[in-house]
Design goal:
By secondary structure, the chain is an alpha+beta fold. It has one domain. The protein has 2 helices and 4 strands; from the N terminus they run αββαββ. A 4-stranded antiparallel β-sheet has the order 1-2-3-4, with helices on one face. It starts with a helix and ends in a 5-residue tail after the last strand.
Length: 68
């Protein structure tokens, strides 16, 4: 779980609520994205990590924004 968190942090994302391993990660500015469109980058992902069995982890990644 810490590996996923560290990977997003190294790429410039910020944790936005939740706990490590089950949180939203955001990069960019949503307000500027709405105002200036494609000239401003904005990314928002929800990550969920669960233990399936015998130490095997299942990592779910969901994109929360449509880019519009």
């Amino acid at each position: 779980m810490k590996i996923v968190h560290d990977m997003f942090m190294q790429r410039g994302y910020k944790a936005d609520g939740g706990v490590m391993g089950n949180a939203a990660y955001v990069r960019g500015n949503r307000t500027l994205r709405i105002l200036f469109g494609a000239f401003v980058k904005y990314f928002n992902f929800t990550i969920s990590v669960s233990d399936v069995m015998n130490g095997v982890l299942k990592v779910g990644i969901k994109k929360n924004t449509s880019g519009m």
